[in-house]
């Protein structure tokens, strides 16, 4: 269970996140949506402990991140630009992370197999495609078999096969009782796999509802897209138009 309560973050004079409150529940896939600059990544970085909130609280299974002696069994992250040595192999990269988390190196093989990288475990990550790096980041998040998994745009760079694999992975993790929080712009996958959808705009929560309820508010051939556009109208800082008047 992930609980975000009244969280705000100010960078100087800029209020990037403003009193954000939402929950992500076990056995459920919660998507965090919003235009570029909405504050999604800042929220995720606060959940990961990389940015300290100006106010508010974040708890995982009722406890703060820093309250855990070793959080690797509680929560896992893939926030896109993860640190890696391009000369390390995938196996070495995950073994290093396993060591930091107090996990045995024997855990690495199973995680690499689950993300489809077992056949390239000995390849240097500097030779990986972006899609393969995404899979490696997801593997990092799955180390320690955490109850909560937080992913920022995990579908970026994946081909069609990769998208289908990711869909099955998410559904399987939720079926295991995992709590998933995923930031995404891929509304097709959101509509297929999402249980709850939280939409942000200009640092605030604009909508927090079930997938079915949000889709019911839309119209046309792509109702989720329609509903999303309606919710975020006025929150997009830049958009194509007819030119300045």
TrEMBL record:
Database matches in Pfam families: ABC_tran
Domain named ABC transporter: residues: 2-227
InterPro entries: AAA+_ATPase, ABC_transporter-like_ATP-bd, ABC_transporter-like_CS, P-loop_NTPase
Ranges annotated as spanning the membrane: none
Keyword Transport attached: yes
Organism superkingdom: Bacteria
Keyword list, A-Z: ATP-binding, Nucleotide-binding, Transport
Molecular function as annotated in GO: ATP binding
PROSITE patterns: ABC_TRANSPORTER_1, ABC_TRANSPORTER_2
Family according to the record: Belongs to the ABC transporter superfamily.
Name this polypeptide is given: ATP-binding cassette domain-containing protein
Organism: Nocardia aurea
